[in-house]
Write a structure and sequence with these properties.
It is a single chain. The chain is an all-alpha fold. The protein contains 26 helices and no strands. The chain has a domain of 132 residues: Arc Repressor Mutant, subunit A, CATH 1.10.10.60. The protein is 75% helix and 0% strand. α10 runs antiparallel to α11, α11 runs antiparallel to α12 and α15 packs antiparallel against α16.
Length: 546
């Protein structure tokens, strides 16, 4: 068969998945081949191979013609590994449909496992776990040790994702012993996963041993596909050992291979720890582009992990310091969405893995983790929501305070002479007291410490009873409230108009306004403005430098 003929068939295969399955005609050169021939000639390693896809389609066509459901399932699996990623899930479902028409538990379990691997690769962790659990249900009824350990590996990956590292390590160790003798690539994958798990529980020396062993074993097997992953793992390990330059060097070295294979998970993790390493070295400007890659991955593909969440906190902190409110708000909002995804995934995954897998296969020591994580993440979400609400509330109150009209920043004055008739006081006496009251305000006598009702009565040349009535009617406040109001308004004016007061501590501002204590001052400021003096001063400073 000529290469040209193969290419024409290949283009036709990619045109439509449904047409592939129903309209394909086996080439004459393959029409007499048996199932064993097709199985041996598909290596499950050469992605997008024209030749292997042709064999897989011929295998499927033969199985359909002969209504051999077991062979149909196997041929669909071959199609999964030789086709475009967009078609893989379709073929996985077809594989399951065919497998279920047989009585072969191993084949049905393999179908679910294959589907779970595809879903995990697509970052559909909840769906992947469901498929793994279904695979375990069928495969546990067989003696197929390879499939049994493959399921264990899949469950261990979910355990690692959830943060149950000790349990993941126990499963990975079981897989390591088996795969070492049975499957070189699976053995290397398990070494890599085991190293990552050791890192997460702080056993950096063991992590390093797994990485070095993985590199040497890969060389011995002449299988170099995993080399960049062990370098990547060691880069993360060096970050936790505080060897930040070495971490940056190793992770940067691993990145090109990860990009080439479109491994978003490890690529994003590399960006995160490069960014964190620069941050730890006090090189925030260099860290920013890498930390922002975490948000890019989340926005484009909804990929996030609990440890990667910290990138948002660092970005929010940075833009708070830069007084860039637009970007601060963007990352605060994005973090809220991230937490929603994490809560949803964790609640589902942890509940599912305990209820439907651990009860059969693992020790019960971690049964309370689901409840623990739910509480912790819920508390985190509430705290974030409160902080966001407080941020916008404080911002609104500050703007309202700064935008008040000039007359409202002066003492309260009422010219409503009709109120004179409501008081049992001679109108001439009222006028005299009001005139003295305005003088009291103008000369800022309210700033004197321990300003009491009796003192005010002396200053206004009247008695305490009249003072209380006049202030209540013409200033709409109680006497103490009125004095406090004037003191706080005085401090607000000073802070807005004179920069030097922005360097004062609360105690100095309290003394300036004539309060009896710093605590009374800060409480009064908060009650009157809705803001703390510290927040108000910081906002004034940020406006000054913007």
């Amino acid at each position: 068969m000529t290469k040209k003929y193969l290419l024409i068939i290949w283009l036709c295969l990619h045109y439509n998945a449904y047409a592939q399955q129903n309209n394909f005609v086996i080439p004459d050169s393959l029409s007499t081949k048996d199932y064993e021939y097709f199985s041996k000639n598909i290596l499950y390693e050469e992605k997008d191979s024209i030749k292997e896809s042709l064999y897989a389609q011929s295998w499927l066509a033969k199985a359909k013609r002969e209504k051999n459901f077991g062979q149909m399932a196997q041929s669909y699996k071959a199609l999964i590994y030789t086709s475009d990623k967009k078609l893989q899930l379709i073929y996985a479902d077809c594989m399951l449909t065919a497998a279920k028409k047989t009585a072969d538990y191993a084949l049905i379990g393999s179908g679910y496992m294959t589907k779970g691997v595809i879903q995990y690769d697509r970052k559909e962790h909840m769906k992947a776990l469901d498929s793994y659990i279904m695979a375990d249900e069928y495969i546990s009824k067989t003696n197929n040790q390879y499939q049994i350990h493959k399921v264990k590996y899949g469950i261990a990956q979910i355990k690692y994702y959830l943060g149950f590292y000790d349990e993941a390590i126990a499963l990975f160790k079981e897989c390591l012993s088996y795969f070492k003798e049975e499957n070189k690539r699976a053995y290397l994958n398990t070494l890599h996963s085991l190293g990552l798990s050791y890192n997460r529980i702080g056993k950096y020396k063991l992590c390093n041993q797994m990485n070095q062993l993985g590199l040497s074993e890969g060389q011995r097997f002449k299988s170099l596909e995993m080399q960049s992953y062990f370098i990547h793992s060691e880069g993360v390990n060096q970050y936790f050992k505080h060897n930040y330059p070495d971490a940056i060097k190793k992770l940067t070295k691993a990145l090109p291979a990860l990009k080439e294979t479109k491994d978003l998970t490890n690529e994003t993790t590399a960006y995160f720890y490069i960014g964190k390493s620069y941050w730890a070295l006090k090189l925030q400007e260099k860290a920013l582009p890498y930390l922002k890659k975490i948000d890019e991955a989340f926005q484009k593909q909804k990929y996030i992990r609990p440890d990667l969440r910290e990138a948002y906190e660092l970005l929010i902190h940075y833009y708070q310091q830069q007084n860039d409110k637009e970007l601060e708000l963007y990352y605060v909002t994005a973090l809220s969405k991230v937490d929603q995804v994490l809560i949803k995934d964790y609640k589902y995954l942890s509940g599912k893995i305990h209820k439907e897998y651990d009860t059969k296969n693992l020790i019960q020591t971690q049964r309370n983790i689901e409840h623990y994580w739910t509480i912790i993440i819920t508390i985190m979400t509430v705290i974030i929501a409160v902080l966001v609400y407080r941020h916008y509330k404080n911002k609104r109150l500050f703007e309202e305070l700064m935008n008040r009209k000039p007359e409202t920043t002066r003492s309260l004055v009422s010219n409503n002479t009709s109120k004179e008739t409501e008081l049992d006081i001679n109108p001439e006496v009222i006028a005299a007291i009001l005139k003295n009251l305005e003088k009291f305000e103008r000369n800022k006598k309210y700033l004197e410490k321990d300003m009491t009702l009796a003192k005010m009565a002396l200053l206004l040349n009247t008695n305490t009873k009249y003072v209380s009535k006049i202030i209540a009617r013409y200033r709409d406040k109680g006497t103490v409230e009125y004095i406090t109001y004037l003191k706080i308004e005085h401090i607000i004016k000073l802070l807005i108009n004179e920069n030097k007061y922005r360097n004062y501590k609360n105690k100095s501002l309290s003394d300036e306004a004539g309060f009896g204590s710093t605590q009374i001052f800060t409480r009064a400021f908060k009650n009157q403005t809705g803001l703390s003096p510290t927040y108000f001063i910081n906002k004034l400073r940020s406006q000054q430098h913007s």
